[in-house]
């Protein structure tokens, strides 16, 4: 999975309006308490394993004093464990300018859903109680450090939050999550990912369908199924012929569906959505349902929080109602 949203754009809009004053006040109060405690205050760990039960104290309250980076991971996703190792090392190198909180998704489904995580690994930040996405998927270390540098800068300039200078050697080591056997659903999801990576699209579709039969709300399986179905539909297609057919027959729903699939695979997301919204507008009955359902499937591929999906949903609502 490729990195997504590696910039810090939008951070100020997300948090500054309401939280800046409160965050600065909380930060000053926290510093005063630490100074009053003197040398008796224990060193804060740089890496913590967060759970739904400890989220408020470990993340929300702590984010008034130091940026908290949350890494969502899964035991079956080797990529996410490798990313955690990189982030843990960087937490030491940054000497307390941020705290890393790792959250295993299967043990923390509520957090997974509340943050709108589309898959693992996924990395978020919390500043002054305000959550914001950093990136999803693996990324080169120089890109990760660029995002962390921007996060630290925004925390200091906008909220007055500066993490304490912590000697990583003196910080309490994070307790590794105890290993647990994979559930049948987790094994099935891992098999589905492997089939998709290997190009076995039919096997991937069936595997993801099996997962969703037991866990209808599984976000990873929904995304994987939508991707596998899309790739199955465009496999072997002649792009020039598909686009010529769509241009020559605007009323041919099948031709428009095929062209929209190619648009999306080619990265022309707005074109794919616009084509299908127009098709819904021009059609009725079964043809309209077919175009509407295909549009909803493509929304799953991109993700519900993507602004292009939000805009297309609004356009679709205007056409339907």
From TrEMBL:
Any Gene Ontology CC annotation: cytoplasm
Signal peptide range: none
Limits of the Thioredoxin domain: 35-153
Endoplasmic reticulum in keyword set: no
Pfam families: Thioredoxin, TPR_19, TPR_20
Keyword Cell membrane assigned: no
Alphabetized UniProt keyword annotations: Redox-active center
SUPFAM superfamilies attached to this UniProt entry: Thioredoxin-like (SSF52833)
Region of interest (Disordered), ranges: 164-183
Ranges of compositional bias, category Low complexity: 164-174
MF terms (GO), sorted A to Z: protein-disulfide reductase activity
GO biological process: response to stress
Similarity-based family: Belongs to the thioredoxin family.
Protein name, per record: Putative thioredoxin
Organism of origin: Actinacidiphila rubida
């Amino acid at each position: 999975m490729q990195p997504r949203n590696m910039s810090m754009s939008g951070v100020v809009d997300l948090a500054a309006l309401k939280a800046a004053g409160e965050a600065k006040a909380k930060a000053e109060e926290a510093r005063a308490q630490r100074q009053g405690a003197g040398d008796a205050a224990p060193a804060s760990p740089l890496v913590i394993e967060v759970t739904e039960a400890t989220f408020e104290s470990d993340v929300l309250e702590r984010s008034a004093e130091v940026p908290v980076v949350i890494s969502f991971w899964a035991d079956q996703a080797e990529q996410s464990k490798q990313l955690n190792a990189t982030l843990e090392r960087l937490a030491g190198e940054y000497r307390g300018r941020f705290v890393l909180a790792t959250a295993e998704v299967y043990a923390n489904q509520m957090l997974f859903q509340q943050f709108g995580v589309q898959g693992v690994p996924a990395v978020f930040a919390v500043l002054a109680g305000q959550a914001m996405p950093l990136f999803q998927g693996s990324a080169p270390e120089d890109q990760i450090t660029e995002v962390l540098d921007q996060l630290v800068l925004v925390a200091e300039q906008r909220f007055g939050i500066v993490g304490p200078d912590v000697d990583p050697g003196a910080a309490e080591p994070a307790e590794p999550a105890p290993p647990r056997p994979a559930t049948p659903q987790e094994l099935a999801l891992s098999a589905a990912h492997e089939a998709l990576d290997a190009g076995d699209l039919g096997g991937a579709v069936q595997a993801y369908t099996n997962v969703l039969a037991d866990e209808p709300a599984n976000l990873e399986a929904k995304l994987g199924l939508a991707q596998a179905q899309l790739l199955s539909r465009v496999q072997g297609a002649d792009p020039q012929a598909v686009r010529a057919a769509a241009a020559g027959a605007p009323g041919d729903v099948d031709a428009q569906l095929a062209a929209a699939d190619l648009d999306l695979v080619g990265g022309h997301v707005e074109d794919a959505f616009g084509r299908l919204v127009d098709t819904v507008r021009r059609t009725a009955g079964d043809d309209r349902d077919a175009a509407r359902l295909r549009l909803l499937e493509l929304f799953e591929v991109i993700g519900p929080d993507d602004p292009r999906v939000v805009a297309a949903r609004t356009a679709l609502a205007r056409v339907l109602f």
